[in-house]
Every structure is written in C-alpha cells, then in structure tokens.
Amino acid sequence: MKLAIIGTGYVGLVTGTCFAEVGHHVICVDNDAAKVKTLQAGGIPIYEPGLEDLVKKNVASGHLKFTASTAEGVEKSDVIFIAVPTPPQPDGSVDLSYIERVARDIAAAMTSYKIVVDKSTVPVKTGEKVAETIKRYCAAKVEFDVVSNPEFLREGFAVGDLMNPDRVVIGVRSQRPVAAMTEIYTPFKAPIIVTDINSAELIKHAANSFLALKISYINAIATICEAAGANVQEVAHGIGLDERIGRRFLNAGIGFGGSCFPKDLSAFIKISEQVGYEFKLLKEVQHINAGQMERFLKKITDTLWVLKDKKIGVLGLAFKQNTDDVRSSPAIDLCQRLLKDGATLRVHDPKAMDKAKALLPNVTYVDDMNAVADGCDALVVATEWDEFKQLDLARAKKGLTHPIMFDGRNLFDPAEMEKLGWIYKSVGR
Ligand code: UGA
Hints:
The protein has 16 helices and 14 strands. It is α/β, with parallel strands linked by helices. Uridine-5'-diphosphate-glucuronic acid (UGA) binds next to helix 9.
C-alpha cells in the first residue's frame, strides 16, 4: 500500500517505519524541515530501542521516505495517517489546532479518493469535525473517507508493540475503507476490530484511563500496606495472578507521568463533563497520583529533616525506563521539588540526561550511575530502569555520607538492604 504519515513524533515515526518494514511504501511528512533533513541523513531525533536500525534498513530499501511537503505525501499516497500532537490546554481540554491545520492541508492537496486516518489521541467526535473540515476545504470536491485508528504503543517498547499489537481498532462511517485498512494491518497478525468512529476514539481514552486507574489503585493499596505493615509487591502478585485482574501495571511507585496518561485523563474528564457526566472516579485517580509524590517527599524530609544544604543523588530522570522522554516526568518533578527546598543534586539517567538539561539546568550530571551518590547525604531512585538493579551497592554506600536510600520504584529488596546496612525506604513495603 502507498501510505503517508503526517507528523514524525514518537507515534508517526515508529508507525511509518513499521509499516515500511512489513512492505508498504511510506512517506513520512513533517513541517519541521530540519527534522526531515536529519531523518533523511539517517539521524533519529528520539531514543527508541530498535528504531534506528529499522529506519536505516527501510530507507536503504526505498520503502521509507521523508518530506516536508504535505502535498507530496498526499499526492503519492492512497491512505494518509494523521499523527500530529494533541497537547493539553490549561483547562485540561485538548488543543486540536494541529489536527485541524493538517486536515485543511490534506484537503487542499487532494485530487482523487483518499482515506484519511486519525492516529493521534483525540476526543470523541473529532473524526466528524475532520470530515467536515476536509469537505469544506477540498477544492477538487473528490470523495474521501475518514477513519479513526488509535495507537496503543508504549514509549520504550514502541517497535515491539507496533509489530505485535494486542489489537487493531478501526473506526469507520462506511464499509468502503475497511478493505484497505485491513490490508495495511494484515501483516501484523493481530485481531482487527471494526467499530464506528466515535467508539474507536473512545476506546483510546477509556484504555489509557483504565491503565492509569490500575496504577492509582495499587498506589492506594501501597499506602494502606505501609500503614498496616504489609508488602504491596506481595499483594500485587497475589491479586494479579487472577487473570481477570492481571499482574501488569500493578507496580507501586511515585506515580505515573509521561506525555499520555496525565494529559489523557484530564481530557477524558473534560470530555465526560461536556457530555454531561462528572467522572469523579478519574478525578480520584489524579488525586491519588499527586498524593503519591507528596508521600514520597514526606518520607525524604521525615528522614533528612531540613533539605537546605543537603546533597542528594538521584537515579533516573526519564518518565519511565527505556526512553529519553522527560515530558511530565515524575522524576523531574521530584528533582524540582528537592531543589526548591534547598537541596543540591547529583543526577544520572542512562538516556535522558541531554533532554533533562533544559528543565534541570542547576544540577550535576554524572555519567557513571555508581558515582552518583558520591559525597551525598542520601540516594533517591526515581525511574524504574532495569540497570539500576545492577547498582554497585557497596560502592554507592562508600560514596554516601550516610547509607540512606529512598527507592521510589521498589527496585531493591528491603530485607537484603537492611542486611547490607542501609536505611532503606521504598513504597508500600
Ligand atoms: C501509555 C500506554 O501504556 C500506551 O498503551 C499508550 O499508547 C500511550 O500511553 C499513548 O497514549 O500514547 P506510555 O505513556 O509510553 O504509554 O507509558 P506507560 O508504559 O504506560 O507508563 C506510563 C507511566 O506509568 C510511567 O510514568 C510509568 O512509570 C508509570 N507506571 C506504569 C507505574 O507507575 N506503574 C506501573 O505498574 C506501570
């Protein structure tokens, strides 16, 4: 199939690359000419495991191309995917101006039947608006179909998630685009669910909100575990083995972050309000998430007392492991709060240090994770990177003035840490 992807962010670039990998001919479009040049030269603007090799391979085979011209993408493709940002506005609603702009650009360039697919996360009923806009701005008055096809990939695991999806959701107004959409996704060997457009749009917000709810649920359980002297990891294991509940997304910590969950929760609460339903459950999910950070900070101040003039080592800046993304990262929030209280910080992250520099200009960046605690009063774990589990604990302990660790991601075993002489505080244990 001949496909265009408008927007080469996380979703657009990975989607375009994986479509090329299974044999489609893909043109990725971005209005940032510098980014397009970087991509054409083989450079990848984000860190995503496995992506760079796949981009290089598909550029070399001619299946993957990049351009700054939407008109070129539209002209050379049968199906056009929209994967541009849908950022939050101050009141929690979604800024749809990029989507609207792209809909107009596509409309202006259309001279024959096209399928226009929305992949960005959008409020329910956006598909209707996109269809109206294309109809209004299409001078050639050609036929077209609008499809909703939400993306469920996780950053850090994006290539794997895209190549092996749990399901593919296709929201349509008529049967006409179904065959082409099915052909695009057949190589991925996943169940394909065909719905109406509104349902497809809702599936995305409902899925992300449910996952966020699951994390807040286990974080609330963690608070009870701490008060009652239980271990949240054992509770999570015990409930998670019930297949109806499932073990995944039951890791307690300092709360969820990133560019999706916080934004999508606010948007879904707003959307619900607009259709006349107050989604109090999701408001509580937000409330628990914010409280999680407060409780963790209290643990630090209960132990270290005054933070002014204290030196703290921090492991982790990304919003989760396997990514360099620091947008809405709980780890960055934590660092900013510690700095505000007068602490000085030595920080390390395997991939996110460059991107963190704009948000945390006044901290010391340490390349070696084992050296991050040197000369510090305490060590904090803020991101769940697997490699932090390999920390040289004896080396870190020697570097600290006191062997104190606040583990916001439960990476170490409390009994083991105590045996090694650490004052060790984690979450819900
Ligand atoms: C999330 C969804 O998982 C994807 O399915 C969805 O496609 C994506 O949003 C999106 O809407 O684009 P992502 O934001 O990449 O993916 O990250 P997650 O792996 O879901 O993690 C989100 C946050 O939850 C992280 O801060 C992570 O540390 C936290 N988390 C996750 C926990 O605190 N506990 C857990 O058990 C799992």
